[in-house]
Design brief:
The structure is a homodimer of 271-residue chains. Chain A contains 10 helices and 12 strands. With 271 residues, the first copy, chain A, is of the alpha/beta class. In chain A, helix 2 runs parallel beside helix 10. Chain A is globular.
Chain lengths: 271, 271
């Protein structure tokens, strides 16, 4: 068995937003029922080439924000904040892993802070062999946004969205599925503007034009909300990897998206 | 800030045995009160150069044994066993991290399976930068025995004892403290033989002579019990790193050992 030999299957990268598995309005509020339902859908699909990345929601973000972890190490008092941010992300991840393993899904977590160092917030080195081994052997790798070490800043926050794009590009993914708590990508925030229009399909050029507009809406998310997601996705789409933005809070939407069945969503393709 | 620059302080490696923080006679029985007490002792010492490694006790061992994880990948049914073994080790680790962070200790866990690949059970590659960054920045790194990937066997069990010796040697440790549930190293199993005699001091030569005798006692521990510990310790002692075997279940013994104060224990030195 060689570590260097890659699985022949191109992976599908599934992002589960923090807003799906936690209640962003209440600190440390895990939506364990949503986790169970998603675990069931994932188990039912039984995909052999899946890699999951989840966000931090009301676990990671509030404490990271309180201690300004994303901005890097500036004073000693931040250190307990870094420790807490990482710790509660492992707790959130543990709840999701519980839901998967309970359903007999051989899911194994990859801890970003243990194998990734960023530089000015961007992934600089990533010990990929455990992730490769997991994929090759048919496990379900699950990773997540985390507080990580940064060779320039001391530490920072690595978003799940950056991880999605990095892994998709590096492992030449077949496609990306972004599970969020709205039906797709809109021309304005659908939670604020009732007249917001959802896109069914966007090309990279259309997305770029839209990006400037979305940039104006300020999201209360240390990793940038929808506009941050789009910015991270671009390089992967540029490489020809299509991305589907789908509502993961609606039963069976993730199941259908994983199966490649028709589902209400926004599909973004290079051309 | 450069990753490559190492802390000037030589680290002290503290092993907390699985028999200390769990009840080995009952599956998944965490001794959270012992964890609290140990966290308090560690917080009180406030050492700047500490690295902690803990064992699996009744969390890691029973499921690892049930699925023969140490022996490597042989059949599909083991995969859920690997996932479970890793998952419950993260749960045990999480409980200990909780105890430390609750006491304001900036402790950050390092997940072995995310940064280490073994070959035939021995550490082959270890992405050490996160551990180096943690030490250098004055965090308390905490790692543990884990189910890990193996380039030859597919997967296996990496014992906390192998980690202790590897890290001590690699990071040129000042000393090693092994916290167990007996008072030190005996000439027989003190839990079985009441007349067993404890050693106060052993040289490497004396330890080697003893090793053959200890090897005969069969320990119910997938990673080899006391005889496995000794075998793992030898290379570090050979390198001139002294090791103290001390009872971590007795209040303040770990505190005193960390402080360098006099405490009942077995000290093993090269000469």
């Amino acid at each position: 068995m060689r570590v260097s030999r890659l699985s022949e299957l191109k992976p599908v990268i599934l992002k589960i937003g923090g807003s799906v598995i936690t209640d962003k309005n209440r600190e440390l509020a895990a939506r364990t029922q949503e986790m169970s339902r998603l675990a069931e859908e994932i188990q039912k699909v039984n995909a052999k080439n899946l890699i999951i990345v989840h966000g931090g929601g009301s676990f990671g973000h509030p404490v990271a924000q309180q201690y300004a972890i994303k901005e890097g190490f500036k004073e000693e008092t931040q250190k307990i904040g870094f420790a807490e941010t990482h710790h509660i992300m492992t707790v959130l991840n543990g709840l999701f892993m519980d839901a998967l393993i309970w359903r007999n899904v051989p899911a194994v977590s990859i801890t970003p802070s243990s194998c990734i160092i960023t530089r000015k917030g961007r992934i600089q080195c990533f010990e990929e062999n455990p992730l490769k081994m997991l994929s090759k052997m048919g496990f379900l790798p699950v990773t997540y946004g985390d507080a990580v070490f940064d060779s320039d800043l001391g530490f920072t926050i690595l978003s799940g969205d950056q991880l999605v794009s990095y892994i998709a590009t590096k492992f030449n993914a077949e496609r990306i599925i972004i599970g969020v708590d709205v039906d797709g990508l809109y021309d304005a925030d659908p939670k604020v503007e009732k007249t917001a229009k959802m896109f069914k399909h966007l090309t990279l050029a259309e997305l770029k034009a839209l990006q400037n507009k979305l940039g104006e809406s300020v999201a209360c998310d240390v990793t940038g909300g929808m506009s941050g997601k789009i910015a991270e996705l671009m390089p992967a789409i540029e490489r020809g990897i299509p991305a589907t933005i789908v509502n993961a809070t609606k039963p069976n939407y993730i199941y259908k998206a994983l199966k490649g069945e028709k589902v209400e969503a926004t599909l973004i393709e290079k051309e």
